[in-house]
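Bench notes, bay 3.
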Amino acid sequence: MARVLLDTTVLIDVLRGRPAGDRLRALRRSGDVPMTSAINVEEIVRGLRSGEHEHADRLFDGLRIVDLGQREATIAGGWRRSHAQRGRTLSQADCLIAAACVTVGATLATANVRDFPMDDIRVEEWPVGR
């Protein structure tokens, strides 16, 4: 049973009825555990279109929402610091999402693979918008 944390790009596709929804259903059928983080929930809610609120609530009810705490914050801060020392700025949100993956042993499903250069995580590209 694998754990897969769905990034915002994938969640948007699910909400809009695009192919990521089929992949999510396949995850559930195979017994894998789909999840997301509080950061992703906030990003989705912020961008909801009229009429999408109920669908989003149903989507979130079917996912495990990963808690973020001191451990995740420490991991994320370390990544941001080490990458900044090499001249690359990583977003706080992306680092917290990736840290959530680390602490629950999940693979990150995203269309934005380049936003997650951390060596400690497994990233799977889910192309979106098709």
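Next record in the batch:
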Amino acid sequence: MSRTPQEEQGIRALRSVLMLVILTFGSVYSIHGRAFPPHGNPIVYSLAISWLISITIAVVGGAMFFRVNPALFSPAHWEKQGEIYDRTGIQAFRWVLFHSPLGWINPNIHLRASRADCNRLLREMNTSEGVHWLTCAISVVLAISYLRHDHAVYGYVLLLIRIPFDVYPIMLHRWNRGRVWRVLQRPARTL
């Protein structure tokens, strides 16, 4: 039995909400509802506090980044072909996102088979990239404060997990933006 596109979209949205709720409640539970001072396993604590920071920023700041001038996020000339990101293993990271539940977190960042949909896609990528930049900045400041206040292990772990949870998603958005830019530069086909 085949599903309609609306049913598929509803299933993706439900999966996304379920994933957000599970990760949020799991994070709150794992830090025992108390974020400061850092406590427990440094990896579990860092993952939980990172998730709580990112979900807060996504809820509060997501709309702000959606309205930001798209030129702020436009790729530099050296980024547009994507070769710099290909060297970092970004395609392997992309594969992991598409083939794991992590890809369920934001199911809407997909191009819907039309050039006209590119502007919507670019705005959504800008929003997501902005949230990752802000999450990274706040987490780095928090990690530095941990390093300065006798919680060095928590600070180092928090810095290390920025790589897969912020740095690689930012690079993936910039790589994808270059791909969309190349599509928009091609002449439109006429029937």
